[in-house]
């Protein structure tokens, strides 16, 4: 990961993962716009050919028709108390059984 940024060109977007919290967006020769990287540090980027995204010293030039920064969530949801009880019931967990939370949630 060069300069805290990993990027991969996909067919319809550029995937970017970064440890940086902000980016600069240069569009059509105008003054750059300062923006926040999504909290996960992962997003898809598309932009017109006259647009460039700059993060941590790396520059990504637009190669699409529209500007979009689409955040990517790395979690697949939280388990509610009701869902956990349903899981425990289905597994047949009894009162004296041991349950270990492996801490794989987002909190």
TrEMBL record:
InterPro entries documented for this protein: DOT1_dom, SAM-dependent_MTases_sf
A GO molecular function held by the record: histone H3K79 methyltransferase activity
Query: What are the residue boundaries of the DOT1 domain, all occurrences included?
Result: 75-107
Top-rank lineage group of the source organism = Eukaryota
Question: What SUPFAM superfamilies does the record tag this protein with?
Answer: S-adenosyl-L-methionine-dependent methyltransferases
What is the official name of this protein in its record?
Answer: DOT1 domain-containing protein
Task: Record the organism.
Answer: Caenorhabditis nigoni
State the gene name recorded for this protein: Cnig_chr_II.g7548
């Amino acid at each position: 990961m060069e300069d805290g940024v990993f990027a991969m060109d996909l067919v319809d977007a550029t995937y970017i993962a970064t440890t940086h919290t902000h980016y600069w967006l240069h569009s059509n020769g105008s003054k750059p716009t300062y923006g926040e990287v999504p909290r996960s540090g992962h997003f898809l980027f598309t932009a017109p050919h006259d647009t460039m995204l700059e993060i941590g010293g790396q520059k990504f030039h637009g190669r699409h028709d529209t500007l979009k920064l689409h955040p990517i969530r790395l979690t697949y949801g939280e388990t509610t108390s009701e869902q956990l009880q349903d899981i425990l019931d289905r597994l047949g967990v009894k009162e004296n059984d041991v349950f270990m939370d492996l801490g794989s949630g987002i909190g």
